[in-house]
Each structure stands twice: as structure tokens, then as C-alpha cells.
Design a protein that fits this description.
Layout: E1 5-8, E2 11-14, E3 17-19, H1 31-34, E4 43-48, H2 56-65, H3 74-84, E5 88-96, E6 99-109, E7 115-118, E8 130-131, H4 139-153, E9 158-165, H5 169-180, E10 183-197, H6 202-209, H7 211-225, E11 230-233, H8 240-246, H9 248-267, H10 281-293, E12 299-306, E13 309-318, E14 322-330, H11 339-353, E15 358-363, H12 367-370, E16 375-386, H13 391-412, H14 414-440
Parallel strand pairs: 7-9, 14-15
Antiparallel strand pairs: 1-2, 2-3, 3-4, 4-5, 5-6, 6-7, 6-8, 9-16, 10-15, 10-16, 11-12, 12-13, 13-14
Helix pairs in contact: 3-10, 4-5, 8-9, 9-10
């Protein structure tokens, strides 16, 4: 890391290490943002341009203390960026007396104007700037210090921040910072997230499930057990960490065999032809690295075996309050016994016993999620663009952002989008009907031309 030190009025500036005491704010700043300038608090900001020296243990602890999901932690984000990501990592740490108080993981992309995204953008269901709420320093101030450190490294950058939970504190903090630093803010709806609130006890869960459903569940377990020796594996990773400490090569072989099994289950799913294959290609390498590197308990991988064959699995990530169900699958020839549902119900009960308050089924509106009567939440995309530019650079910025966000722009106008497609479909049908009638009646006089509306490709 570069280490040229400058003095700036009581603040120090290290290339790669930036003190926050010399940051200029507009006159309409809030008290929290004004405090970012206060040198008496002893805050310093370190900016790293690589992942090798990331403060991994502290990063994990901070994500949990901030109440954020594992999608914002080092094990997930480093794997996603390595195998699926783009741009140069830009990691911002805010410390006081050596303690990590806040952290931002970004990726810096080049172009006509620098672009900052969250690290792992596109491959993560949630993103956030992490800040410890119990330090005596306001979260708004800590988030502002992280963002200030990021844009100091990339002056004039556009910030394209995806998958921020809507309605939460993070949107407000990012927007507050943007408005006080002279950025225009555009908020775009991005994804629907299905969350199942969990009761306090398994008895409450079973009572809500109903007598008939519990009877059917027992019947399906019996049917599955009749097909062979049934083994319920609540932890398919059991013993892997210990084996890795003793014999890393043997542990790697065991993990490779397990990932092969998981991929084979996906290949045998009833809807395999149209489902994505998470354990293949770059996605498979990403998830394999997460399985290898994440601390015990972060990844929860359970499964069902019949005569030794893995017939269903569920892959989850454990957060501070929620269990996040990332992907599950089962083999089609066992579909009549409902192994996916059986495993999901077991997973729900184990989550309740473990003290989780909700099962987060993440992005998507799949039918099986709706049967659990979830609560729908949303994530948004925040696009922060510097204001006060000349006309041409401003147009270039808007065009560059639109290239990245056009799908979310369409979602923002979902009703108009549906109306457009309905009109296009009606006109297509009308033109087809006219063509058929003209073909049936060759002497029919020509009709006035119908307006042409071309359907857009999805």
C-alpha cells in the first residue's frame, strides 16, 4: 500500500489512508454529517485497493453487529467478486483507536466517468455500508465517513448501489449523504423478497400448519422411507472444518464430491431445463469457495439421502436474525414423496429452535414461497450522480447509467410497460385478423393502415 503522509490542518492524509477531519460540507449540512469533521473523535479512514489484506475476521464481526446479512460479509463478497465480479476492489475502513467501526466494500469501474458499485453487485441479494450502532458515534456519521473515503479515491464518481433494502435505515443514510455532498439521487425498485416470519416455538408453528397438513407430512415421510434407507443430514458439511485443519487435500476432495452431488440433484430436478444451475460454472466455483471459507454455522447445508443417494438439499446462510434460504432442489423421481417440502418444513422448525425470527426466501416469486404465506419486501437501486456538470458530460453520465439500469427503469414504470405490451398484442391480433379476412376475400378493398407497434424483446 502507498504510504505518503501529508498534513492538512490537524488531519493526516495517507495515500490509501485518509483522515476525515478536512472534509468540506455545504452550509445546509446536518449535525451528524458535520461531526465527520471533528478531529477530537479520532476517526481515520483506510482505503485498500485489493482483497488480499482485507480485515476478514473484523469484517465478519462488524456485519453481525450491524445486523446485516452474510451477503455483506467477506466470505460471500470475496468469492462473488473473484468469480463473478467486475472492476477493482475498493475497501474502506473507518476506525477509532484501532477498532473497526464501519466498513464499505465497493468495486471501481472505469469509463468516461468512474463508477462505484457495491462489491459483488449482481450476485448478492442484499448490500449495505456496515456501521456498528453501539460505538457512541452516530451511524449516519460513520456511513458518511465511508462514502467520503470512497469518493476521495474516485473523485467525481457515479455511485450505482444495488439491492439496498427498501424502507430501512440504509436508504435514508445513503440519500442523506448524497444530498449533502451535491449528488442527485434516483431510486429504482429492484427486487421483491419473500420473508416468512417465524413464531417463538415449534408448537406454535405446528398449530398454524394445521392438523391435516401435519398428517400429510407424516405420510410423506413414511412413503419416502419405504423407498430405501432414509438418512436426514442436518449438516452435510459436518466434520469438513476439522478435516481441513488436519488434511487440506482430503478436505478439498470431500468438498468436490459433495458439490458434484449437489449439481447432480439440480440436473435431475423436474424443471431442470429452465432452472439455473447454481453448482456449475462460475456460480459453482463461487458457492464452493463460500463452503470452503465461511466459518462454521454461517452456511447451513442440509439434505436427505435414500440408500446413500442425495435426493434433496437446502443451502442457507445464517444471519444475525434471519436464516436466508439461498437455493434448494430435489430429484424428480422422488417428487411424489415431496422431499423438497419435507426438507423445508424441517428447516423451518430447526430455524425456530435456533432462535431465528424469520426465514428469508430471498429474491423471486416462485410458487412454493407463496404457499408459506410470506411477507413481501423490496430492494431498491440508488443511483447517485454528481450535479453541476456541463451539458455534454452530464448527458454522457446519464447514458452510461441508463445502460446499467434500464431493466430497473422499466420495472419502475411497470404499469406503463404492461399497457404498452397489451396494446402491442391487441394490434398484432387485429392485423392478423385483417390479413386472414383479406386472404379469404380477395376482392375486399384495402383497409386503412394500422399503426405499427413493435413488441420489445425481454
Amino acid at each position: 500500500m502507498r504510504a505518503r503522509v501529508l498534513r492538512t490542518g490537524g488531519a493526516h492524509l495517507v495515500r490509501g489512508v485518509v483522515a476525515v477531519t478536512d472534509l468540506a460540507l455545504p452550509p445546509h449540512r446536518t449535525a451528524d454529517l458535520e461531526l465527520v469533521q471533528d478531529p477530537a473523535q479520532g476517526l481515520s479512514v483506510t482505503v485498500r485497493r485489493h482483497l488480499d489484506s482485507a480485515p476478514v475476521p473484523e469484517w465478519r464481526v462488524l456485519a453481525a453487529r450491524a445486523g446485516q446479512s452474510p451477503f455483506t460479509g467477506p466470505d460471500w463478497l470475496r468469492a462473488v467478486h473473484t468469480h463473478l465480479g467486475a472492476g477493482e476492489p475498493l475497501l474502506v475502513s473507518v476506525r477509532r483507536d484501532g477498532r473497526l467501526l464501519a466498513f464499505g466494500a465497493f468495486a471501481l469501474l472505469g469509463g468516461p466517468r468512474p463508477l462505484l458499485t457495491f462489491l459483488g453487485a449482481g450476485g448478492s441479494d442484499y448490500a449495505a455500508v456496515l456501521a456498528d450502532p453501539d460505538t457512541g458515534v452516530s451511524v449516519a456519521r460513520l456511513v458518511a465517513a465511508v462514502l467520503d473515503g470512497a469518493v476521495r479515491e474516485a473523485p467525481g464518481a457515479v455511485l450505482d448501489l444495488e439491492q439496498v433494502p427498501a424502507g430501512g435505515e440504509q436508504v435514508e443514510l445513503l440519500t442523506q449523504w448524497a444530498l449533502h455532498r451535491g449528488y442527485a439521487v434516483r431510486t429504482l425498485p429492484q427486487a421483491t423478497v419473500q420473508v416468512v416470519p417465524l413464531p417463538a416455538t415449534v408448537a406454535e408453528h405446528d398449530a398454524a400448519l394445521g392438523r391435516h397438513a401435519r398428517h400429510e407430512e407424516r405420510r410423506q415421510w413414511r412413503r419416502l422411507a419405504e423407498l430405501g434407507e432414509l438418512v436426514v443430514a442436518d449438516d452435510l458439511l459436518d466434520g469438513l472444518a476439522e478435516l481441513r485443519a488436519q488434511d487440506p487435500e482430503a478436505a478439498a476432495d470431500r468438498l468436490e464430491e459433495l458439490v458434484t452431488e449437489l449439481a447432480e440433484v439440480d440436473d435431475a430436478h423436474p424443471h431442470a431445463a429452465r432452472r439455473r444451475r447454481p453448482w456449475r460454472g462460475a456460480s459453482g466455483r463461487t458457492l464452493t469457495e463460500v463452503l470452503w471459507s465461511a466459518p462454521a454455522g454461517t452456511v447451513q447445508l442440509s439434505g436427505l439421502r435414500v440408500d446413500g443417494e442425495l435426493v434433496a438439499y437446502a443451502f442457507c446462510l445464517a444471519g444475525p436474525r434471519a436464516l436466508h434460504g439461498y437455493v434448494q432442489s430435489y430429484r424428480s423421481r422422488y417428487a411424489a414423496t415431496g422431499p423438497g417440502t419435507l426438507l423445508l418444513l424441517r428447516l423451518l422448525r430447526r430455524a425456530i429452535v435456533s432462535g431465528f425470527t424469520e426465514l428469508d426466501l430471498l429474491r423471486g416469486d416462485e410458487a412454493y414461497k407463496k404457499r408459506l404465506e410470506p411477507v413481501a419486501r423490496r430492494t431498491v437501486r440508488l443511483v447517485l450522480t454528481p450535479t453541476g456538470q456541463d451539458l455534454l458530460p452530464g448527458l454522457v453520465d446519464r447514458f452510461g447509467v441508463l445502460r446499467r439500469t434500464y431493466r430497473d427503469e422499466i420495472r419502475r414504470h411497470e404499469r406503463l410497460d404492461r399497457s404498452y405490451d397489451a396494446l402491442a398484442g391487441a394490434l398484432d391480433r387485429l392485423r392478423g385478423e385483417v390479413s386472414r379476412r383479406r386472404a379469404a376475400l380477395p376482392g375486399l378493398p384495402g383497409l386503412p393502415g394500422l399503426p405499427g407497434v413493435r413488441r420489445r424483446r425481454r
